[in-house]
UniProtKB/TrEMBL annotation:
This is H(+)/Cl(-) exchange transporter 3. GO terms for cellular component: early endosome; Golgi apparatus; plasma membrane. It is found in: Membrane. The keyword Zinc-finger does not apply. It comes from Talaromyces marneffei PM1.
Amino acid sequence: MPRSAYDPPSGSHDDEDSDDYERYHGPVTAPVSPTYRRRLPAHENDRLLGTERRTTYGAATRADTFFRHNTTGGTLRRSRHHSRRPSARFVPGQRTQAQLDDTPKDWNDDVMQGSSFLDERLWYDQFTSIDWVHDSIKDGIRLRELRSRKDFRGRMLALFDGAQGWILVAVIGCITAAIAYFVDIADKHVFELKDGICTTSWLSTHRACCGGESSCDAWNSWSQLVGFSRFDNESVDFIFYVFWAILMAMGACGLTMFTKTVVPSTIALSTLDENLGAESSNAPQSPSGHFASLRSNPSTVYYSAAGSGVAEVKVILSGFVLHGYLGLKTLIFKTLALVLAISSGMSLGKEGPYVHIATCVGNICSRLFKKYRTNDAKRREVLGASAASGVAVAFGAPIGGVLFGLEEVSYYFPPKTLFRTFFCCIASALSLKFFNPYGTGKIVPFQVRYVSDWEIFEMGLFILLGILGGTLGALFIKATNIWARSFRRISLIKGAPMLEVVLVAFVTGIVSFWNRYTKLAVTELLEELTAPCDPTGVTKSGLCPNEKDDILPVVKYLLVAFVVKSLLTTITFGIKVPAGIYVPSMVVGGLMGRIVGHLTQYFVATYPDFFLFASCPAVPGVESCVTPGVYAMVAAGATMCGVTRLSVTLAVICFELTGSLNHVLPFCIAILCAKWTADAIEPRSIYDLLTDMNNYPFLDNKGSHPATDQTLGDLSRSTGRHRTINISNSPLVRAKDLRGKLDYLLMAGELDSGLPINSALCLLTIGTGLSLIMKTVTQMVRCMISPSTLIHPPLLSTYIPHWI
């Protein structure tokens, strides 16, 4: 995995002071140790995250003592408390095989008991991967020791150990629901500051201030409060609306800036295949010069509170390490910034950030129990359940949350994790139901109920909406990619994220103010788009025309809102504020579906005797046969599928939002058509695009089919001589050559420094301490080489270190 590059020696050893040389290299007669530079004082370029995250470990001066301790320079994993027990000594002589045969049977047990294998948590560098095998073995040994106790105390400890996971996910679900309640209440109050204020209680919303009425004396707009005589009231309200939108967006961006993380350019962000491909080119630059040129590149900067965080959570659950991305600081700042970002009126949602926030809660709460605190693989089981609870509180859909964890984010999902995820989602949704943030008994405002069934002729329209939704989602991904690679590549925009946020907020304010539907919050707009019309004809949304002549004006307003929301969603996604894409994409699809629904209403009202409409009930009213809200919900799910490529999850979420078994089939058909269409236009989902743009090393288990008619040589690129050890001609390898290859790998930023051997005799891996793993037919020996001049792979004079 990539890591910070290492500084090659700048001068020859002849010019150095003899005392310093012996201090770091050992006796003058011995070859130079390849690890001496990691025992030197740390340089500024060795920092991964700046001065506030710098960690330096000391090391012993003797080579054999140094090899038994972990150092910063080339260790993939570090434990806080190292084993002080001397390593087992193994000296092969003339009869090496006889000595191997005489190895005590309990040798592995002795090594395990004296090692630090099970002592503490392994600590990983930035932009590396966890050791799944180590953590799995560690947890298995822990369970074996726990279950070996047959007394009463041992049985109680085993029961408590099994209950820890259930207790933990219940706590995570309740805390996630509490945070969602705070965000729902806060953004509802702050959002309406753009329109005015309640004079009797300035913290009250418009609905609470006026008792549900559209207007009242207690609620005053900003034009009434300021009273400018030179301008009309609408102009004053417009100025204050844009002002508050920009101010809230700046506040959200400012809070996001506090989570800035700088990663030096020496940490390569490319995969191994890309690295090999780059080095296989015939570049005139030397290896040291090639990697030294990385220092001139700008550092990588990311903001852990920006965006939705779903792509990063997905990568983290696959084993990737992003320090601070799931910490308490990110949780606090992202929650506060999310309130301001939603209140600004920009076309973004809070449902995606809920996944990130819930995962932060899971990461923090996992420190309550040691088996999750010290085991990163076990912790990721909890993180997967936490991410699912974020979807449960975002849509009020616990089953949809479980399927989201199974289909989208979780990389490892055994049945035990499935049940705990289900329990976590139920705990979060039930807690939010008790909190009742909207005062209506709904978990989310866009929960709707349809009483009328759909007609047979509408199935063709649902398929059409699925195709249109998939096309719209795929085009959104392409437009987002183009916008990110064009506008955001401008030096002024790239160097000042706040400027882009201000521009987007300004454009959103001046465009959205004049249209009622674009002025609404995305959750309220989605509620109005998907809600069925009141049979009494009393409505405040303006989306329920009573006569045929009233349909086309409604379609005109919806068409304008559709164009505006589509453009605003494209330029908003990716700015440096917490921003989700779930509900904004559903709003765009809902506008499109509502337009199709009203046009269908108009056609049915114009040609009531058409043979396809023979099954429509003979009841007066334009909504007697067609319900536009159903079209909006179908198109909303299809568009979200085109953006995220969720399939089963979305069908279940739509069912849980509507509670209608009659409409499950239209939802499924439209989502299926949307996924097929979107995959044909753009194979990547929006999160796959973000993963590729950020160069995260994510191994997708849903990728293309493996090639069965090609060999590995056809698929992989040729490697340079610095990366392999060729013993085809001679089994002898000079230690000087090994040290040179190791230096090359360290400069390349590879932590494991693994070197494949071109031979069938053994498997040899050179580690950062020149560790070798030799595998023969009869034995496997884990060892470390001393700085000898010649090394014969089958016969090694070595030290056997503590168990890794």
